[in-house]
Amino acid sequence: MSTYHTAVKEKIKVIMSEKKPNILERFIIFSETNTKTLKIFSYGIASISLVIALYRIRPFAKFRKPSSIPSRFLQRKVQLQGTVIHIEPNYGTLLMVDHKPLISLPRLSSSTYLPIKVAGLDVTTNGISWLQTIVSGKEITFIPLAIEKDYVTCIVSIERNKEQIKIGEELAKLGFAIVAKDSPKTLIQDKDIVSYHKCLLKAQKWAQNKRNGHWHFVKNPTILWRMQQNLNNKLKSILPTFIVQQLNI
């Protein structure tokens, strides 16, 4: 028997002979005499915690269909990433995305991609062309909001000049999409979705004022509007860029 274990036993005998050990002393005695048991127990707790954490974040999961995305991802607005393979004009224009899991593993190639719909918009024909030119083949970030049978409704962003640009706002600002009547505003209890909806409406109003895209054909330019545009163009040529951006002209 080792000197250490002998010393431990002697210490225990002293404690037991002096008085009845309290809870703390009992724990000390147990921990010193059952070191291996405690280590195994600690490793077991750590392993269980790791399994639970992996189950919740699904770092290896590659989502190929709407139903495969856990509902808790929607509740927590988990950001996901992927590459837009092509644009599908059906079901209100879908982005067919090759989802990129947090930790990639070797897999067999598949032609099945996750169908994503940009939240809150009805995309026009020009919008489809814009998506095919600007977004197709690019990596995007998307936040799932709602799962439908044929697609996932998401807030979609793309990096441009080292900034994250929301595709929905950009489409609305260009007049290449119209804010849908059944937009995410119906989820009024969610402040983030309400804020997104307000940004869409603001972008659409800007497009209407500029007669961009769809609004060029819907709203006939008046004399007052032409005068305002001429004034804005002159201001753009005179004022610094950052002031023009602040004035939103």
How would you describe this structure to a colleague?
The chain has 249 residues and is of the alpha+beta class. It has ten helices and eight strands. It has helices at 3-18, 23-33, 35-57, 71-76, 125-135, 167-174, 191-210, 214-218, 223-238, 241-247; strands spanning 80-88, 94-100, 114-118, 121-123, 139-147, 152-160, 163-166, 177-179. It has a five-stranded mixed beta barrel. A two-stranded antiparallel ribbon has the order 4-8. Strand 5 (139-147) and strand 6 (152-160) form a beta hairpin. Helix 1 (3-18) packs antiparallel against helix 2 (23-33) and helix 6 packs parallel to helix 7. It starts with a helix and ends with a helix.
Given as residue ranges, the uncertain stretches (5+ residues, pLDDT < 50) are 50-55
User: What fraction of the residues are assigned to beta strands by DSSP?
Assistant: 15-25%
The end-to-end span amounts to 86 Å
Work out the radius of gyration: 30 Å
Order of helices and strands: HHHHEEEEHEEEHEHHHH
Q: So how many helices?
A: 10
Structural class: alpha+beta
User: Residue share in helices?
Assistant: 40-55%
- Largest sheet data: 5 strands, mixed, barrel
Principal-axes shape call: elongated
Sequence of strands across the biggest β-sheet:
1-2-3-6-5
On the 0 to 100 scale, the average pLDDT is 79
Q: What is the count of β-strands?
A: 8
InterPro entries: C3orf33-like, SNase_OB-fold_sf
Keywords: Membrane, Transmembrane, Transmembrane helix
